[in-house]
Design goal:
single chain; 388 residues; Serine Threonine Protein Phosphatase 5, Tetratricopeptide repeat; 2 domains; 10 strands; flat
């Protein structure tokens, strides 16, 4: 991505869920009991945040509207999971796709929010009628937002609504059918890991914390992250955001302890590594920064776009061999992403391998999503073949 080298040097990286990078203000005054979590600090004033049940709360009018539809006689020939999908499809006809993270009640009454808001609303309706809902991450071309020294990279989730379980004559319950809802489908989206219920709720708190962080409301950000940590204390994205909060407050030793903990005790995180390297460079610990920069290669990350962005950074630094390796890593995870093959073609060309550059550009042209991209790649391929 153009300018990715500059962003990596200047902006801390945070992941938000919802296909856009901002969150909504709190909508509940109820207090979640705040935990005694590792890396807790008395430097912050703890503030009341929504309880989990607030996130999935629906007012009586919205409950009645859905249940009347769901239990209507004319709908009883339709399986419950398909009924819910149809109800949501009708509901979304007037939906405003904002970047805000709303709870279920606000999303339903305002008919607005991001994809996380819609996933929360879906779970709230499903819970009313006993339907099982599962969430999966979807890795897609990232959307970036920058503010106050923080760059957010947007992610989004896909919702799987399972059919009501059926019981056979031997009293075994089974269900093989489900409806998959992707509120913001995009070309090249790559299905990621299953998201646990606790991690799903943590996403809500993380989004709100990122917005608080962007306006330097560190007390609110810390309080929200404490709530998220109570649910999922090992969530890497929560820990990443918590480290950034501590860093912005000037508690560099605490931030560093979080970064090291994640890198030493988990499969790792590209975002954690980028942020740690940035902090080390800002502290003039360049030797330490250089040591950690090469750890990218050892991290297991199922998001091909993360590797693509790192490849762009390496290419921008004229490290073409490293860029080629990372473009190939991205392509291995998602062999239908034209951008990765275009990157390979550029890298091969810079390395003097015109034959492999031509092959990679041909592949990029074949995989292009749009006619414009296809035309661009074809023109570059023609130039490469002429030179070759």
């Amino acid at each position: 991505m153009k300018g990715s080298k500059q962003f990596a040097n200047l902006f801390l990286i945070l992941l938000v869920t919802g296909c856009a990078g901002h969150s909504e203000t709190l909508v509940s005054a109820n207090t979640l009991p705040l935990p005694q979590v590792k890396w807790q600090s008395d430097a912050y004033t703890l503030i009341a945040v929504p309880q989990v049940h607030d996130i999935f709360y629906l007012n009586d009018e919205r409950k009645h509207h859905f249940l009347s539809y769901y239990h209507a006689l004319e709908n009883q020939t339709v399986d419950g999971h398909k009924q819910l999908a149809q109800y949501l499809d009708d509901f979304m006809g007037g939906f405003s796709y904002k970047g805000d993270t709303y709870n279920a009640d606000l999303a339903s009454t305002e008919q607005a929010g991001n994809c996380l808001s819609l996933a929360i609303l879906t779970k709230a309706y499903a819970s009313l009628v006993g339907l099982k809902v599962e969430f999966r991450k979807v890795n897609s071309a990232p959307l970036y937002s920058r503010k106050n020294g923080v760059m957010t990279i947007s992610s989004h989730v896909q919702t799987h609504i399972h059919a009501p379980p059926q019981t056979d004559k031997d009293k075994f319950s089974f269900s093989f059918s489900k409806v998959i809802i992707d509120y913001f489908p995009s070309p090249g989206g790559v299905l990621g890991d299953v998201v646990s219920d606790d991690d799903f709720v943590s996403m809500y708190y993380q989004n709100l914390a990122v917005k608080a962080l962007m306006v330097d409301d560190l007390d609110m950000a810390y309080s929200l992250l404490a709530a998220a940590m109570q649910l999922s204390p090992n969530n890497i994205e929560t820990l990443n955001t918590l480290a950034v909060v501590h860093k912005k407050f000037g508690k560099f030793n605490v931030a560093e302890s979080i970064y090291k903990h994640v890198l030493e005790h988990t499969k790792g995180s590209v975002s954690i590594l980028i942020n740690y390297v940035i902090m080390l460079k800002e502290s003039n610990r360049n030797a330490d920064a250089a040591e950690y920069e090469d750890m990218y290669m050892e991290i297991e990350d199922d998001n091909p776009y993360r590797w693509h962005d790192l490849a762009n950074q390496a290419y921008g630094k004229e490290n073409y061999s490293k860029a080629l390796y990372l473009y190939k890593k991205s392509a291995d995870m998602a062999p239908y992403l034209h951008e990765s093959f275009f990157g390979q073609a550029k890298s091969y060309f810079q390395l003097g391998n015109k034959s492999e550059a031509s092959k990679a550009m041909q592949k990029a042209s074949e995989l292009a999503y749009t006619k414009l991209d296809e035309k661009l790649y074809f023109a570059k391929l023609h130039v490469l073949q002429g030179r070759h």
